[in-house]
Write a structure and sequence with these properties.
By secondary structure, this protein is an alpha+beta fold. About 45% of the residues lie in helices and about 20% in strands. It has 6 helices and 10 strands, in the order H-H-H-E-E-E-E-H-E-E-E-H-E-E-E-H. It has a 5-stranded antiparallel β-sheet with strand order 4-3-2-1-5. Strands 7-9-8 form a 3-stranded antiparallel β-sheet, with helices on one face.
Length: about 220
């Protein structure tokens, strides 16, 4: 499935370039049909192109970067990525820009040069994602029992995968709680629903088991 989608980015980019090139050729042909002498125009394209090359270095950089994106395909249409310091779902890659939609439904147009010139994080490419969560328990609670309760709770969350197996282990000893890492795996498309459902299920399971989830507190002692 991904193999078919993989070529779509390159195909869309080539279509965009070819369409604009065809329009340019068509305009020249129409001018010729109307009796306009296009020979000086064509002859002057070499010199003009040289001059415009300096004037539009940024645009040429975006065009070249767009070609690199299309050829290397670090993402495909529909992937959720981090690029140029922004996050969103890829809508298209054209000659000059990459268009993405943010999680709150904003349309962002990024110059191809900015996208290709920095790190690109693709959250969909590998198909699976690890959900990284943390929960704190009281210092007086049995950590081993708490881990068992959490693992049992995770097993009932829709979308959580058993392969790779979920991992639950002590992360740190904080001021007010023993912090536990909760790390189930899910398909990339199910990441957010699984994360929300896991937190809900774990909290409910700990409460039913009588395991306290503390809140930050400060003890103040006054001298008598």
């Amino acid at each position: 499935m991904r193999g078919k989608a993989k070529g779509r980015l390159l195909a869309d980019f080539i279509c965009s370039v070819v369409t604009k090139a065809c329009w340019a050729v068509l305009i020249v042909m129409v001018l010729g049909r109307l009796g306009v002498n296009v020979t000086p125009l064509i002859a002057g394209l070499g010199v003009t192109g040289f001059i415009l090359g300096f004037a539009f270095q940024e645009s040429l950089g975006n065009l070249a970067s767009g070609m690199m994106i299309a050829l290397n395909e670090p993402f495909k249409v529909g992937d959720f990525v981090d690029a140029a310091g922004l996050s969103g779902t890829i809508l298209e890659v054209n000659m000059m820009a990459t268009v993405m939609k943010t999680a709150d439904n904003k349309r962002i147009v990024l110059p191809n040069k900015s996208v290709w010139g920095g790190p690109i994080v693709n959250y969909n490419a590998l198909g699976l994602r690890r959900v990284d969560l943390q929960v704190g328990i009281d210092y007086g609670e049995d950590v081993t029992r708490a881990v068992d309760v959490i693992l049992e709770a995770i097993a009932h969350v829709p979308g959580v995968l058993q392969d790779p197996a979920p991992a639950v282990a002590v992360a740190s000893l904080n001021d007010s709680a023993v912090q536990i890492n909760v790390r189930p795996w899910a398909k990339s498309a199910d990441y957010w629903p699984v994360a929300a459902a896991t937190l809900t299920e774990v909290k409910s399971a700990l409460e039913k088991a009588g395991i306290k989830i503390p809140f930050p507190q400060i003890e103040v002692h006054t001298a008598k």
